[in-house]
Amino acid sequence: MGITIENKTIDENNPVYIIAELSANHNQNQDLALKTIDAIKEAGADAVKLQTYRPETMTMDIDSPLFLTRPDSLWAGRKLYDLYKEAYTPWEWHPRLQEHTRDLGLHFFSSPFDRAAVDFLEDLNVPAYKIASLEIVDIPLIKYIAARKKPIIISTGVAEIEDIDLAIETCQKEGNENVALLKCTSAYPTPLNEVNLKTIPEMARKWQKTIGLSDHTMSLATPVAAVALGARIIEKHFIIDRSLGGPDSEFSLNKEEFKAMVDAVRQTEEILGTSTYTVTDKMKKAKVSVRSLYISKDLKKGDTLAEENIKSLRPNHGLHPKYYFELLGKRLKKDVRRGTPVSWDLIE
Hints:
The chain is α/β, with parallel strands linked by helices. The chain has helices at about 30-45, 55-60, 80-85, 95-105, 115-125, 140-145, 160-175, 200-205, 220-230, 255-270, 280-285, 325; strands at about 5, 10, 15-20, 45-50, 105-110, 130, 150-155, 180-185, 210-215, 235, 290-295, 310-315. The protein has twelve helices and twelve strands. A hairpin with a 2-residue loop joins strand 1 (about 5) and strand 2. Helix 1 runs parallel beside helix 10 and helix 6 runs parallel beside helix 7.
């Protein structure tokens, strides 16, 4: 079920793979993009992800209501072309951003939005591809990417089941089984009641793929809960400072928030541990505090043990409480003081 990106295998036996989405959070400033990558490294991510497109490959520069953003979106009323022109990452930056990312020991890959972008990223020899949620229906693009035989991470934000089936089948027909799926809600930012993380284990069962989360909430609890439910990839938008603004600023985590998320995810992995009933060394030490049987009154030789003179108490120096009923009615073969742990050598 796992996928491998360069030196990292992503499955249930390895650490959760954390992707920082740079997206538009460079505000068309390359120095800011480079500083953001530095901050991504410091925050503990495994990978930096870009989006590779040009505005003319996303939409048409037409003054028409058909080419405006949705009225219920963060960008309501804007021309799609103008939004993408503001948000896109200049292609001439990619080599420098890639070099800087790799120098920091992070993976660098992107979401391409057309064949030219795939060819460009192939020239850069990226180790993996991401299919954005809204591109899951672009079967020709998925087919073209799958033919590169590299790992593919597919977001499912707007997908029906048949869309996911078709995307996976398209990859399989190209001989590419190296596919992971991300649970995603394409709402920016995502209301918590629309996240529906219980879908994650169902996705793993249904498609037998590595499952992750592309998260657009502002809650650190969301990725933690996703990991607890089996997510092995977490993708979040990253920004140095939301006050800088930009198209994606309102659903991006800053460095401190992202680092807190990474720390929480790593703690969650440690807490989840493995399925085991093994009593650890620390737990064995704690067993000294469990209950055992004690004499609760001063007694003489020949006295009979009864409910009023034998009790189950802490700590664990006497017989196991399971012998309580067996001991009732037994006689003592010596005098004993109150507080004496019950042992078989006291019994006739």
